[in-house]
Every structure is written in structure tokens, then in C-alpha cells.
Amino acid sequence: MSKDKVKTVFFCTECGYESPKWMGQCPGCKAWNTFREGLDSKSNSKDSSFAKRNGIDNSVIIPVSKVEIKKEDKIKTNIGELDRVLGGGIVWGSLTLIGGDPGIGKSTLLLQVCKSLGESGKEILYISGEESHAQIKLRADRIGEFKDNVKLYCETCLDDIKEVIEKEKPDVVVIDSIQTMYLEDVASAPGSVAQVREATGVLMKIAKGMGVSIFIVGHVTKDGNVAGPKLLEHMVDTVLYFEGDRHATYRILRGVKNRFGSTNEIGVFEMRNQGLVEVGNPSELLLDGRPENTSGSVVSCSMEGTRPIFIEIQALITPTNFGIPRRQSDGVDNNRVVLLLAVLEKKLGIPLGNCDAYINVAGGIKVSEPAIDLGLVAAILSSFHNKPIKEDTAVFGEVGLSGEIRTVAQTEARINEAAKLGFKKIILPLSCKKSIRDAKGMDLVFIDNIKDLKI
Ligand code: TYD
Ligand code: MG
Q: Which of 104, 107, 242, 271 to mutate to test the pocket of ligand 1 (most atoms within 8 A of CB)?
């Protein structure tokens, strides 16, 4: 056997478990049929210590208290909504992955980031493996004027890209997209698990070793995961997802993982002719076009990071014509809806077992905070009884399995925002009463059980 033969291993695309043989089921995460062949990461680096591999000299042992930190200056992109999601700005030498459906605006956002950073004097290299110079220029023209320190490079060979980055020494690099990049040493095609994994490894080395901040665009699969190994998400420092309805004009950027900030912040943008424009008050946009005096429509409030977002929950409850009743939800967890339907059936005796239930959060936003439970319950009851809830009413609170209404955090922030948006009445948990100092002239209705919800 020749000494420099490249060894391959099989690894699980879900959890990254490595094995010398292919296996049907992963012993690590018990997922089936997730093993793919890839390059052995140990075989091509003599020194496998993380720090050495990443070009960082962290091999000394010192007490935590003695570690000196060069002030962690973050690079502000001056796109407020993005800075918020990133946790204040781009960290030097960080690797950020941006995922999202095709055409949602990943390339547009990153080009805007390049423009903005270019204006603050940073050296930028935008590397595209998908579009030609002319195509990028067309998009750039829509966005605005670019300074000369923003440079384009159309290439897919990562070995060449590495050399160029080492020569040019840019401050920020954009790789659009990781699925088009390939390394010559890896035999499989670009976009394959092995290529994506190795390419990300190389980019991480560049980022940590040279202190270059790198943005990677990642395509997503049909079920909304970044194509390629889940491992990719483990490797990078920050993962951002673009979500939202491609047919609607606004887009939501959500932090899924962030080593340098909180993950529950969202940034809201609107796609216009001149690129993505920040939306300062997302609730207004999400509630825009709400039907008046219609049953099954309720406004609820979800805290997204530090910001309360008001959303419209719509429910449609119809008799089941035959077979098993359908439960379908968009924007909220279907299991949560099923659970709340069961609570309503048991505690209020409403025969929802004979009804189909369709739930939708208007605007394509996905919400997961339990505080919207009471909003869901109110929408379901409103549709079932065919009784509208007044448009100036907002509802929030967590619902427990015995129908009790539990407290939610940051009640005052929610009330303040509701007042700003022009709501007059709020139905909320009784246990929130003690934390409220200023009701902002709002009619507050405190309840502690879903039995008290009068619809
Ligand atoms: P793009 O950034 O190319 O998407 P991705 O890289 O995520 O695949 O965005 C493409 C969409 O955005 C396309 O449908 C056109 C639209 N768009 C605008 O509406 N206005 C603009 O100024 C730009 C640049 C794009
Ligand atoms: Mg693109």
C-alpha cells in the first residue's frame, strides 16, 4: 500500500459519527441510511490537535484567569437588522453560514454587506461559484455604488481560492456557495458530503489562521436543512437562516447558532427593487392586511430575542367529512396544536375530535414561544363558535395540560409594544399581574384558566 494513499471513512450526515465501514444505522444517533463516504480528516493532517490544525498557537496550558483577550472588536456591518442577529457585528476570524431557499436573497444580502463594509474601508473579496462577473454586476447595480475595495472573483477551486486569499489578505470573504466549491484532493463531486465537509474545514483554517471573517452561503434541502452534512453546522461559528414566504416581499433572518451572541434574535427585511431594506417595525408589517371582524383570527405576541413581535394566528375549524380529522399547521408546531385541541376537548368539552383544524400564522414567520398558546386557543374557539374577536385585542399566555394559564416573561415589553401598535385590550395570564407597573392605559383582562376565556 502506498504511503500517501488517501484514506476514506464513512460518517453519519446527521451527527458526524465516523466509522471505517458503511453501516445501515448510525450507532451514534440511530438514524437510518445516513452514512456517506468521506475523506479521513486525520489522514491528511499529521497533527490532529484542533489548535494546530487551525493554525492557532493555543498549545500552552495556562489558568483561565490569565488568558489575555485582545479586545474582541466586532465589525459593524451597518445593516442594523443583521448586526442584531450576529450579536453586534461580525467577529474577526469567524465563519458564518447563511442558509435559505433558492431565490430568497442570500446573495443579495451578502452583496449589500460587502457594499456597506466597503464603505467603511474594509477590504472585501466576494467569491462566487454560481454567477459570472457580469451577473453579479447586474445585481450590484440594483443595490448601488460600490467602492473599489470590494472585489469579485469567480472561481470554484478552493485550492486556488486559498492562494488568492493568502495573497490579497482581505478582511472579509464571501463564499457563494459552499456547494459549488471543490478541493482537488477529494475525489467526489462538488456539493457532495465529502467535498462540503472538507471545503468548510479548509475555510475554517483560513478564517482562524489568518483572522479573516468568512461568510458561506449554503443551499438548503427540501426539508429546510443545509444541504450536506449536519456537521457543517457544527463546524462554523454562526448559522443564520433566511425564512419567509418567497412570494411575499419580506424575509426573516434567524440566528440558529451563534458562538458570539444570542440565537433567538431575528432580523426582518423587505425585498425591494434596490435590494433588501431593513424593516424597523416587523409587527406592523406582519399585521398588515388583517381581516376585520372575522372569526378565527387572533393577534398574539411572541418574544423574538429582545423584541416582542405581534403576529396574526388564523384558525379554521370545520366538521370532518369522513375518516380521521386533519390537523394542519403552518408557522407553529403541529404537535403543540394537537395538544391544545386535546386540552380544549377535555377541559371545555368541545367536540373537536369531529373537526378538521387548520392553523396558519400569517406572513410565513415561524413562531415557537409557548406564549402564543392562548392565542392559538382563542383562534380555535373563535373559529369553532364562529364569533370574531375584536381587532383591538391581543392575547398571550402559555396553556398547561390542565387548562391553566401560566405566566410568560417580559410582560411589560409586550404591553408597551401593544400600546404602540394601537391595541386597546389584552387578555393575559393572571400570574403576570404582579410584574406590571404601568398598563399604558390598556384594558388588561387577567385569566388563570381557559374556562375564563369568554368568546
Ligand atoms: P438572490 O440574492 O439571488 O437569492 P439567493 O442567492 O438566495 O438564491 O435573490 C434573488 C431574488 O431577489 C430574485 O428573485 C430577484 C430578487 N431581487 C429583488 O427583488 N430586488 C433586488 O434588488 C435584487 C438584487 C433581487
Ligand atoms: Mg445566490
A: 271
Residue 17 confidence (pLDDT): 77
Residue-range definition of the domain harbouring residue 379? 285-452
pLDDT digits (tens, 9 = 90+) for 258-280: 988 888 788 999 988 989 999 88
180 lines ligand 1 (CB under 6 A): no
Let me know: does 90 contact 96? Beta carbons within 8 Å.
yes
Any idea what the Cα angle at residue 444 is, between residues 442 and 449, rounded to 5°?
Answer: 160
CA distances from 148 to 52, 152, 276, 438 (A): 35, 10, 22, 52
Cα 351 to ligand 1 centre (Å): 47
Query: CA–CA separation, 76 vs 79, rounded Å?
Result: 8
CB atoms within 10 A of CB 451: 12
For 332-342, what is each residue's pLDDT tens digit?
999 999 999 99
Q: pTM of the predicted model, to two decimals?
A: 0.78
Q: Are residues 80 and 213 in the same domain?
A: yes
Question: Residues 36, 80: one domain?
Answer: no
Nearby residues of 412 by Cβ (< 8 Å), 6 or more positions away: 435, 436, 437, 438
Tell whether 310 is covered by a domain.
Answer: yes
Domain final residue pick, 235, 263, 280:
280
Question: Of 257, 280, 303, which residue sits at a domain end?
Answer: 280
Same domain (yes/no): 267, 296: no
Pair (235, 313) in one structural domain: no
175 in the same domain as 106? yes
Distance CA 173, CA 212 (A): 7
CATH number at residue 318: 3.30.230.10
Q: Which residues surround ligand 2, an ion (CB under 5 A)?
A: 107
Average pLDDT over residues 218-237: 71
pLDDT, average across residues 306-319: 94
Q: Are 274 and 314 in the same domain?
A: no
Ligand 2: centre distance to CA 120 (Å): 24
Per-residue model confidence (pLDDT) at position 46? 44
Averaged over 104-115, what is the pLDDT? 94
Nearest to 306 by CA among 213, 220, 230, 413: 413
Q: Which amino acid is located at 81 in the chain?
A: E
